[in-house]
Q: What sequence folds into this?
């Protein structure tokens, strides 16, 4: 096996190993960020590996709200069992050491969503959600007059959604705090 082929195989097995360890669906953006931040592989090799693994049915892709989420497929699990020795020991240790924190961040990023879109020249629509297991717990849509307001609402929703949600439910159930 030449060096380039071995590197491609190692990258694919590393991705399979990561998906096996994380045990939650991971978006392309999340996977890219994790792989690049940890310097496991470069962007182009990552995207090529993801594409080839999709074609080879080693990973499954589930699209929710126009975002692709990747998970380990049964064929990928078999491949990982055969070739897990290709993942360097040091990388395996780093992943195992940090996987709980990574999983928590992925769940949090996947569960709290805030985004805005320009509706017309004087109006922005802001969408704020909390999603659990791909099911919305709360989905709020607001119209605001400026980009700054839209950005501020998105930033504050991401910071305070876990506090806001029980307050909204309490108010709606007539159980507001006095």
A:
């Amino acid at each position: 096996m030449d060096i380039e082929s071995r590197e491609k195989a190692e990258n694919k097995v590393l991705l399979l190993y990561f998906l096996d360890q994380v045990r939650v669906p991971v978006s392309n953006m999340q996977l890219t960020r994790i792989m690049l931040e940890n310097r496991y592989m470069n962007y182009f090799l990552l995207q090529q590996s993801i594409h080839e693994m999709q074609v080879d049915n080693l990973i499954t892709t589930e699209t929710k709200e126009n975002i692709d989420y990747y998970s380990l497929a049964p064929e990928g699990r078999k491949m990982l069992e055969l070739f897990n020795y290709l993942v360097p020991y040091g990388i395996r240790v780093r992943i195992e050491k940090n996987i709980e924190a990574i999983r928590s961040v992925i769940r949090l990023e996947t569960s709290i969503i805030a985004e805005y879109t320009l509706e017309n020249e004087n109006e922005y629509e802001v969408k704020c959600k909390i999603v659990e297991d791909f099911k919305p717990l709360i989905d709020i849509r607001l119209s605001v007059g400026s980009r700054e307001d839209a950005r501020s609402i998105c930033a504050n929703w991401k910071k305070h959604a876990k506090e806001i949600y029980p307050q909204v439910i309490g108010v709606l159930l007539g159980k507001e705090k006095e």
User: Anything to note?
Assistant: The chain has two domains: 3-87, 111-172. The beta strands are 26-27, 59-64, 67-72, 112-120, 123-132, 135-144.
